[in-house]
Sequence to fold (206 residues):
Amino acid sequence: MLFDLDGTLIHSLDLHIEAFQEILNQMGKSVSRYDLEPLMGLTPQDIIQKFTPELSHQQIWQAALEKEDHLSTIIKEIHVFPHVVELLTQLALFNVKKVVISSTHQRLVILLLEAAGIMDLIDEVVSGDEVKNGKPNPDPFLLGMNKAKASTSTTIAIGDSLHDQNSAKAAFIPFLSLLTGKTDKEAFDQNEAKMIIANLASITIR
Fold:
């Protein structure tokens, strides 16, 4: 089972937005939460490029690293969503591989999972610095499926954003649209979501 991280397993959206605003402000760019929130789910470098198209690839990558470094300094306690621990524990009992698919860089993904206390419940991680093309391209979910040694017929993906949905769809992986994050039912419906669930308690393992 492939899980998005932010907005799906843990509450960390506000921290990401704060970190982006800090780094962009240092670059002379005043960016609102309203402008940033729809972009959450893309890689840090793709988000920064949206507001600094004049920068070189190397400069954008450096800014992305600085954003991740800043975020690591403001992580204190990360809260998991209700039913996350129960679901991950139940999946382990059924020997289901649990892979986190995040656009964040790997070092920070590990820090977030450890701060949330669920690192031990995750089998594999796919991070935004491991793939050439991040969400909404299929690369992250395809890599996650590969790490789980699974196929599209034995895999399901779960996420809270249209970027997650489009990435899984492009990888031909069935997708559960989750309403615990920043995307509402109407937006998922307009994006032709096949399965929409209110929270992770809606998932039953048999």
User: Anything to note?
Assistant: The CA atoms of residues 136 and 164 lie 6 Å apart. The domain at 2-11+79-202 is CATH 3.40.50.1000 (Rossmann fold). The first helix runs from residue 13 to 26.
